Amino acid sequence: MITINDLLVMLPELYLTAAACLVLLFDVFIRDEQRDATHWVAIIVMLVGIFLVIHGQPDMTVTAFGGMFVRDHMAEILKVTVLIATILMFVIARPWLRDRKLFIGEFYSLSMFSVLGVMLLVSAGNLITVYLGLELFALPAYALVALNRESKLSFEAAIKFFVLGSLASGLMLFGMSLIYGATGTLDLHGIFAAVGTTTHLHLLQFGLVFLVVGIGFEFGAVPFHMWLPDVYEGAPTPIAMYISAVPKLAAIGLAYRLLEVGLGPLAGDWRMMLAIMAALSLVVGNVVAIAQKNFKRMLAYSTISHMGFVFLGLSNPTPEGYASALFYAVCFALMETVAFGVILALARKGFECEMIDDLKGLNRRSPWFAGMMAIAMFSLAGIPPLWGFMAKVLVLKAAIDGGMLWLAIVAIICSIIGLFYYLRVIWVMYFEQPVEGAGALEAKPDLALRGVLSINALGLVAMIFFSGPLFAWCQAAFGA
Amino acid sequence: MNHSIFQMVCFVVFAVVAVGAALAVVSVKNTVHAVLALVLTFFSAACLWMLAEAEFLALALVVVYVGAVMVLFLFVVMMLDIDLEPMREGFIKYLPIGIGAAVIMLVEMLGIVGVKTLQIPAGANPAGASNIEWLGMALFTRFLLPFEIAALILTVGLVAAVVLALRVRTFSKHQNPAAQSAVRAAGRVRMVKMAATPPAASSKQESQA
Which of A428, A433, B97, B134 is at a distance of 20 to 30 A from A8, taking alpha carbons? Predict the structure, then answer.
């Protein structure tokens, strides 16, 4: 029986659904010159969403709709981070979109629907809600990548993203059907209970493989990473920023729900698969990133290597391991927004600022933006004492505690290799001359963009002092 | 004849037809034939559902997909004159490798999962309720949340399709009837007062020429 309590539990989601529909309608009734109103309304809607998520969070895990929807602390952390990352994207994207005549209301409503999908996905307690959340999150993302219809590269990226994304969700659906066949239930807790008693253990393991493949696709882990560099390069830069941050957070929730809540008793089977994907991602991501000349492609390969680190945490199926992986993903998402934010701020009409050479001599032309990019690069590289370093230490510790010493050694070697391409960006910015004939590279005078980006970058520095409480929050989410 | 043997035979026949038709969809050259093969695939799948006693789903598949969606597809395919020949180059060359890989995977799958689990699914007829009754009850009680999320996904699909397909051409020439009917003589014709006699200078030039 569905009561008012079920609806109250998922108040933030219901609110965002209504708000996204209203923003969609609101935008129809305003003129192009007034589009800023949509922009600010969307941001306020998201801020209220953060308030509702945090304010209404019960201390205990509560479920709604007969276990279909689960509201726990892990979901809370992920939802807050996703909302923050999306607000950052909205603010940072506005001047870029306006320059390219892409400043349309549907950008906001589609992003909000996508965020709603993530929120439902990370709170899913049933295979059906997992799948539908995934689709609701992915469908607007495909459309957003194709937002710039004048660009062939953008369309190609969207088609690749769509075809491979559909393939991944098809594989995942197949795995889910096998698991349903083996356990006779769609409820994740029911599956957990049925693993011990099922007579079709092989069928279950077979389904598990497909789920792991689907999760690998969502993360963009090797060997399911092919779509990532092309999508980063082809997508409009603000959308690339969104895709670099939000789907990874969604994937953490997806992995935890399916692998731990659902198939926890099979941890012995899946942790090795994750460890192999982690090692491959670390090696391929870091080595291939060195050869990249396009900054967005370099960030794509760097993302692949970072997903290797997230898997490092997940390959230790204990609360500590999950907490470190969650911490890493949150940290990674907020570092990516700075890296993408700086190139978005420097891009102008007819100039994308997406090659590494475009950043040459940035320090002379715009020291503050060079400084922020340096913070992001140092943090991504994992230079102590920055936030990225702490996240790396925590996942390495989790992997070693989980008995995966070899994986930790691979990770350390690979992150030393990875230092090269992060430091190259810094070298180019500080010690090289601007290219002959390059126009003045000044950032846009958009006050909101400058302010938000500065807060984001300074936040990365400030997190040196607040890592402890955040990690404690992550640990509490998994009951450690 | 034994009832369950008859069921088994039907299952195998429909399953083979479904898989064969699905193969035809991706391998025939003529796109119209491919769509027709897809219709056959859906129809066989509907028959399989009928065997599993899911009558409503079977009918919905035939009515919605075969009746409406595929006919639309057929129209689109017939209107677009797509030449797929260049895309099929090398199809025969890679066919043996593809078949080999598929057979190996099939053998592996059977080896892992076992033939024993490949049995006819039990009837979808819980607690004696009719199919439609059960579906309706399930959709609006236990599965209300997924049902609503699916509705949201459809909304997003609609919005995304409009965003991607609607092209407002700013440079195209078009008429604005509102502006046309709002035209007054004062806005178009300017009355100028000028002398009735021709200027003397010009007549002088003409006489010289």
Answer: B134
Query: Which 169-228 residues of chain A touch chain B by CB within 8 A?
Result: 181, 200, 202-203, 205-206
Check CB contact under 8 Å for B117 and A181: yes
Q: What is the pLDDT along chain A (480 residues), one digit of tens a residue?
A: 778 888 899 999 999 999 999 999 999 898 888 889 999 999 999 999 999 999 988 888 899 998 899 999 999 999 999 999 999 999 999 999 988 888 888 999 999 999 999 999 999 999 999 999 999 999 999 999 999 888 889 999 999 999 999 999 999 999 999 999 888 899 999 999 998 887 888 888 889 999 999 999 999 998 999 899 999 999 999 999 999 999 999 999 999 999 999 998 999 889 999 999 999 999 999 999 999 999 999 999 999 999 999 999 999 899 999 999 999 999 999 999 999 999 898 888 878 888 888 888 888 888 888 999 999 999 999 888 888 999 999 999 999 999 889 999 999 999 999 999 999 999 999 998 877 555 555 555 688 888 999 999 999 999 888 888 889 988 888 876
Domain topology for B8-86: Four Helix Bundle (Hemerythrin (Met), subunit A) (1.20.120)
C-beta separation of B90 from B78 below 8 A: no
The DSSP annotation for A32-57 comes to GGGHHHHHHHHHHHHHHHHHHHHHT-
Q: Find tokens 């306006």 and name the residue.
A: A98
Classify residue B155 by burial, with Cβ atoms within 10 Å: 0-12, 13-18, 19+: middle
- Interface predicted TM-score of the whole assembly (ipTM), two decimals: 0.90
Q: Does A113 touch chain B (CB under 8 A)?
A: yes
CB-based contact A135 B153, cutoff 8 Å:
yes
Q: Residue A440's domain spans which residues?
A: 4-477
- What is the number of domains present in chain A? 1
**Contact with chain A for residue B149, Cβ under 8 A:** yes
Contact status of B152 with chain A (Cβ, < 8 Å): yes
Closest-CA residue of chain A to B139: A65
Between chain A and chain B, the number of residue pairs with CB atoms below 8 A apart is 73
Rounded to the nearest angstrom, the minimum Cα separation between A1 and chain B is 7
Q: How close, in Å, is residue A62 to chain B by CA atoms? A: 16
Sorted by sequence, the CB contacts under 8 Å of residue A329 that are 6+ apart come out as: A81, A248, A249, A251, A252, A310
Domain boundaries, chain B: 8-86, 90-120, 129-166
Are the beta carbons of A104 and B163 separated by less than 8 Å? yes
User: What is the DSSP secondary-structure string of A383-436?
Assistant: -TTSHHHHHHHHHHHHHHHTT-HHHHHHHHHHHHHHHHHHHHHHHHHHHSPPPT
